[in-house]
Design brief:
Pfam families: B9-C2 (PF07162), Prefoldin_2 (PF01920). By secondary structure, this protein is an alpha+beta fold. The protein contains 7 helices and 16 strands. Among the domains are: about 75-175, Helix Hairpins (Orthogonal Bundle); about 220-395, Immunoglobulin-like. The strands form 5 sheets. It has a 5-stranded antiparallel β-sheet. A 4-stranded antiparallel β-sheet has the order 11-9-13-14, with no helix packed on it. A hairpin with a 5-residue loop joins β13 (about 300-305) and β14 (about 310-320).
Length: about 400
């Protein structure tokens, strides 16, 4: 009456000495140890005895208790939190997709432009924050490879967004969630509509209504900044030649960059007719969102140029706050440039001989006044920046910028 499968052991020790003691074998409830016969090594026998219906019923009833406690019902707050997390994940995927699509369009524009240029013509490419001189023939294949990879990333991003949408819809159906501002699906037939009217009162009692369409716009506001880094002005002319500037956007922990570049580098420029002014005309455009004005966005500028030994060194740092929203006029901001200096005389003398100024490891520390206390510096020149800001959703959060006049002061 037993289905027996014998598996020989490599050893020949008799199991009679074990006296029926159970060792640590997998599925030891169905293992039976028998004494060895003459000349036959000990064997482990897997026995599958027939299970009665009463035992099967007992195992079925005891299964839920052995697995753990029954699943508790979620509260409305927990359902709301999980649903908001799913929505935020989908929103982040959409933002990432927009960023990749922007890079894809830039690659397409550059590729179309370079195809009309001679392959031997020199061009510059920014690699790791460093401008590298290459030829069009060497850069074009690399850009085409990057373009194809970006296209694959766009397809994968769209697929992830669709999957996340299916997951959100399934979660809504599972917990009977209705979103205000979104119309429910139409009924299949008029008979089903009549049946639904009878159950409307019961459903409305258990329905969790989430004001996501209006609540999302009330939870944060958008700030769009447009303008340009116009020029750098030096009263006695710049100390070096071939100046270029890099800007970095710094904001508080509650701010998130929605579109645009957080960092960019201008072209190399030099003085022409007016020896005091170096023109950049570098466009600046980005959009950020936040739940509060704390940590208002700042733009940190780092100016670099070559000295008399043709060695690249910094020519000053500057920072500006993004202007408050409240007027459609473009504001002119003049940010003074300051150059760090060594505190001891020996290092200052070496810096004067070599023409190399000390540089900041992270210029973003200028956004926090407590991080650059005691810094020795001197001011020479200024940057001219034109910026315009537009806010959206601030009125719902009762934010009044109080700006009605154009202020050209820094």
């Amino acid at each position: 009456h037993f289905q027996v499968t014998a598996a020989r052991f490599s050893g020949k020790t008799s199991i009679t000495a074990l006296k029926g003691s159970q060792k640590s074998f997998p599925n030891k409830e169905n293992c039976l140890f028998l004494p060895s016969a003459r000349g036959f090594p000990a064997s482990r026998l897997l026995v599958n005895p027939p299970v009665s219906r009463r035992a099967m019923a007992t195992q079925t009833e005891s299964a839920p208790t052995a697995s753990g406690k029954p699943k508790e019902k979620k509260s409305q707050e927990e359902i709301y939190t999980e649903f908001q997390q799913l929505r935020n994940q989908q929103r982040n995927l959409v933002n990432n997709l927009h960023t990749i699509e922007m890079d894809l369009r830039e690659h397409r524009t550059v590729i179309d432009t370079l195809k009309t240029v001679d392959a031997d013509r020199k061009c510059f490419r920014l690699i790791g924050g460093v401008l590298v001189e290459q030829t069009v023939g060497a850069i074009l294949p690399q850009l085409e490879v990057n373009h194809s990879q970006l296209e694959k990333l766009v397809d994968e991003g769209k697929e992830q967004i669709s999957k996340k949408g299916i997951e959100i819809n399934a979660y809504k159906d599972e917990h009977n969630i209705s979103v205000r501002g979104q119309e429910p699906a139409p009924a299949a037939a008029s008979s089903e509509k009549d049946a639904g009217d009878d159950k409307a009162s019961v459903v409305n009692e258990t329905m969790l209504e989430l004001q996501l369409t209006s609540g999302e716009s009330e939870s944060f506001f958008h700030l769009t900044v447009t303008g340009q880094l116009e020029s750098a002005h030096f009263p006695m002319g710049p100390d070096g030649d071939g100046l270029f500037c890099r800007y970095d956007i710094v904001a508080g922990p509650d701010w998130e960059l929605m579109s645009g570049l957080s960092s960019a580098v201008t072209q190399s420029a030099r003085t022409d007719s007016d020896y005091r002014t170096v023109v950049f005309n570098m466009p600046i455009e980005f959009t950020m969102k936040s739940t509060n004005p704390y940590g208002w966005p700042q733009i940190i500028f780092s100016l670099y140029g070559a000295n008399m030994w043709n060695v690249e060194t910094n020519r000053g740092y500057a920072r500006v706050f993004c202007p408050l929203s409240g007027t459609d006029a473009e504001r002119v901001l003049r940010a003074p440039l300051f150059i760090p200096k060594y505190a001891n005389a020996c290092s200052a003398l070496m810096s004067w001989i070599t023409g190399v100024n000390p540089e900041m490891r992270d210029p973003k520390i200028m956004s926090d006044g407590s991080k650059h206390k005691g810094l020795s510096s001197e001011t020479y020149g200024e940057l001219v920046v034109r910026l315009q800001t537009i806010s959206r959703g601030s009125s719902r959060m009762a934010l009044d910028w109080g700006q009605t006049m154009v202020d050209d002061k820094f």
